[in-house]
């Protein structure tokens, strides 16, 4: 059976993707795996916002996004981050194509809470046929974490959440949430496996805090909706912490 693998990488990852990363991608492709990349871009967005004097405000770890903020986010993700990633893939002889919410209704979403977060959304529909069409052409889709609402409003989406939604709709076998640490750490040691019960215990005792919480919640959501294994790690060459039921 053909394996489907979704990989979420950070916005700064374009400069950090190693030869080993691309070798792993190529090896998976030789085994007929189908791969999707979902990229973030927080640092690029913040930098561009600062240059354009757009206030940066985060609420519960989510970037408050005005209409102007959406325009800047699109500029950063679609004008800077995605082209750099596509070029990195090209230089490493992996055929890739950049996609976004406007590509044949790829990602449809709804506003989370406009009063609290502005134009921040959650994805409720993925055009999986478009992704399958790209796979048939032996292309790796590189997808920006943006959605469009039913009434045409562009929405900013957390990249972990976007990758999780795409993995769920594709019924992916593996989801890699790449981060800057090699897994979930407890007392200085990386957990090899994390179940929902263990995750709740670690959150309740404040051992898991900050940005790792939404990442783990995304991972748990994915496995509960049929993704076989979710890896929280800093590289595709290392399994990191495997979140499983």
From TrEMBL:
Keywords: Amino-acid biosynthesis, Arginine biosynthesis, ATP-binding, Cytoplasm, Kinase, Nucleotide-binding, Transferase
EC number: 2.7.2.8
Site (Transition state stabilizer): 8, 215
Localisation per UniProt entry: Cytoplasm
Domain Aspartate/glutamate/uridylate kinase: 3-234
Cellular component GO terms, alphabetical: cytoplasm
Catalytic activity: N-acetyl-L-glutamate + ATP = N-acetyl-L-glutamyl 5-phosphate + ADP
CDD domains named among the record's database cross-references: AAK_NAGK-like
Record GO biological process: L-arginine biosynthetic process via ornithine
Molecular function as annotated in GO: acetylglutamate kinase activity; ATP binding
Involved pathway(s): Amino-acid biosynthesis; L-arginine biosynthesis; N(2)-acetyl-L-ornithine from L-glutamate: step 2/4
InterPro entries for this protein: AceGlu_kinase-like_sf, AcgluKinase_fam, ArgB, Asp/Glu/Uridylate_kinase
Binding site residues for substrate: 41-42, 63, 156
Record function comment: Catalyzes the ATP-dependent phosphorylation of N-acetyl-L-glutamate.
Family in the record: Belongs to the acetylglutamate kinase family. ArgB subfamily.
Name of this chain's protein: Acetylglutamate kinase
Gene name of the record: argB
